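Quick one:
INPUT:
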């Protein structure tokens, strides 16, 4: 098992996207009562918890800058997501979000695939970005692996653009993978970073 970070040695983590990966993508979700975990999400995070590998949620939330959701609404959705994961026996170390629009004329360092959120998490929690895994349903969620030297896993969903799937397929290598489910993606990630605890379930219907 991989121990949590010590003062001397940063540890790898799983950086997982939120919308479309852990919860249903409702497009600028403002109502916390509408948060729905996707199949296998809690089991996947719990699997990482059992392996003692930190899980960090990273999410672009341009709806805040666009005026489509408020910061308070974002926080309520974040807290509801954490609560639902907890009910499923899973927990996350932290959640980071980028509230900016991402307009080409207004670039920021934190919007994925930028590394701002990852670097902030690494500094706060002693995480090793070079051996971490980057998981999500969009190519921008996976792309940070190319910049950090980590491992990227695309989990295509109903909202994943075909261009993102093609991008991942063209990049498939010893560091870039594709997976049919979030549970499988976490299993791959744990194997790549060195944790090899057994899956409790591999059924697609979770």
């Amino acid at each position: 098992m991989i121990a949590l970070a010590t003062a001397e040695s940063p540890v790898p983590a799983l950086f997982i996207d939120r919308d479309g990966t852990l919860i249903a993508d409702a497009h600028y979700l403002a109502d916390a009562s509408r948060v729905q975990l996707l199949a296998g999400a809690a089991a996947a995070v719990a699997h990482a918890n059992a392996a003692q590998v930190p899980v960090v949620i990273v999410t672009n939330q341009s709806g805040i800058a666009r005026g489509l959701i408020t910061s308070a609404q974002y926080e309520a959705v974040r807290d509801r997501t954490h609560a639902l994961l907890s009910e499923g026996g899973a927990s996350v170390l932290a959640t980071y979000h980028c509230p900016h629009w991402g307009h080409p004329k207004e670039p920021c360092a934190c919007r994925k695939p930028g590394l701002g959120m990852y670097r902030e998490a690494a500094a706060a929690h002693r995480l090793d970005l070079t051996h971490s895994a980057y998981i999500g349903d969009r190519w921008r969620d996976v792309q940070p692996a190319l910049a950090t030297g980590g491992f990227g896993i695309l989990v295509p969903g109903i909202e994943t653009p075909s261009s993102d799937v093609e991008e991942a397929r063209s990049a498939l290598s010893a560091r870039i993978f594709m997976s049919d489910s979030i549970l499988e993606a976490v299993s791959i990630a744990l194997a790549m970073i060195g944790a090899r605890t057994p899956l409790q379930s591999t059924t697609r219907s979770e």
